[in-house]
Amino acid sequence: MSYVDEVIEQVVAQNPAEPEFHQAVKEVLESLRPVVEANEERYRREALLERIVNPERQLKFRVPWVDDKGQVRVNTGYRVQFNSAIGPYKGGLRLHPSVNLGIIKFLGFEQIFKNSLTGLPIGGGKGGSDFDPKGKSDREVMAFCQSFMTELCKYIGADTDVPAGDIGTGAREIGYLFGQYKRIKGLYEGVLTGKGLTYGGSLVRTEATGYGLLYLTKEMLACNGIDIAGKTIAISGAGNVAIYAAQKAEQMGAKVVTVSDSTGWVYDPDGIDVAALKEIKEVKRARLTEYKNYRPNSEYHEGRGVWSVKCDIALPCATQNELLLEDAKQLVANGCLAVAEGANMPTTMDATEYLQANKVLFAPGKAANAGGVATSALEMSQNSERLSWTFQEVDAKLQDIMVNIFHNLDDAAKRYGFEGNYVVGANIAGFEKVAEAMLAQGVV
Ligand code: NDP
Questions:
Q1: CATH of 56-189, one of 3.40.50.10860, 3.40.50.1240, 3.40.50.1820, 3.40.50.2000
Q2: Any catalytic annotation for residue 126?
Q3: Which of 65, 195, 198, 422 has the CB geometry, 3.0–4.6 Å to 147, for a possible disulfide?
Q4: What CATH superfamily is the domain 208-368?
Q5: Cβ of 240 less than 6 Å from ligand 1
Q6: 276-324 pLDDT tens trace
Q7: pTM, whole model, 2 decimals?
Q8: Which listed residue (126, 218, 231, 366) is catalytic?
């Protein structure tokens, strides 16, 4: 049996009931086959793959807090410190009822390669909890965040592990987490990113993932002779990534016609009104049903359906496994030219393969959504320097990083004879740097 197959088998056997983690490991290791085969003897002797699929450390802890009725509630907190070969662990905290260890491990594993692709010195980690901030009062969210940080603060620090936001963890949550860290540790340091601008946050961090997604998509299209201006775009999600992806797409002259949330989706033939979307989601924290009040020409549909709309470009920006094989078939039938993942692993493996087989340009999330973590790393640099850069400075660096990421993965794909396969390119380009660093650091 090949080394890759052996390790995939071990991961499935040793991590039962973690299907998302198995999926992420399979996707990455399958595409690393050519690199692994070229170095099989050394990698086997060094157990490189066994080491890379095993987190350096995984923490699971109790998070007790008191709700507004005086009832004590208990959630589970996680932090998976996956790989520190190229820098301190870095990755977001997800607060969503679906969170379990397998989800955090899949995200942490992906984060290793994403962070490597940015070219910045950051290792891979991820964390979160099954706590649902939806429907909770600010005081309840604060109580949860303080309890979560009371435990987490023992294991993180500006030079060891720097968490950030993710689904359910926005500016409010980061503020409460930072406040509690500072209080317990007595340290004012850049231990979290995505902070408010008055206490060490970076300009552009809020917009970074969505903007970065569009910078990379534009470059990928341009290198394939396609101009993004005038194209119709379908976006899923209506959160941080989706909102700023829509904003940048419109600034680039494209028309975004859909957004969605966990209950339904909106089709706006005149182009999504980003200001209205921001008010509904960021200010009112309301459902997308409200959108029709702002744009009477739009349609609201319950359930899923974003990918049934005719579009040139599809940008899944909600969550994992939200673009299925049947959706891929629909996109291809509708003449879709490109799919770029704003979310982490939103496209199932069979859907990805179908899109690629049908010549749809496909940019995987670990490259396409790396703008968020890249800008987080820029926030860390500013914190260490005790300086704040202007919006233009950070935005220019973000653009450079995204364009470089695209060329790195494009080059890696070509080097191994997989021209145009950006999934293989991203995994190889991300892996090479981490592998070299791990081998150089000995058996640790
Ligand atoms: P948000 O919480 O801001 O938004 C998530 C959006 O997706 C919401 O509209 C939410 O709907 C929808 N959604 C969540 N879960 C589901 C589900 N099970 N089915 C359908 N819709 C769902 O998160 P972000 O925008 O920050 O993150 C979106 C994705 O991007 C995630 O995969 C995240 O890991 C990834 N990502 C985020 C980065 C960042 O900087 N924020 C960086 C890199 C990746 P509702 O409001 O109804 O819950």
A1: 3.40.50.10860
A2: yes
A3: 65
A4: NAD(P)-binding Rossmann-like Domain (3.40.50.720)
A5: yes
A6: 999 999 999 899 999 999 999 999 999 999 999 999 999 999 999 999 9
A7: 0.94
A8: 126
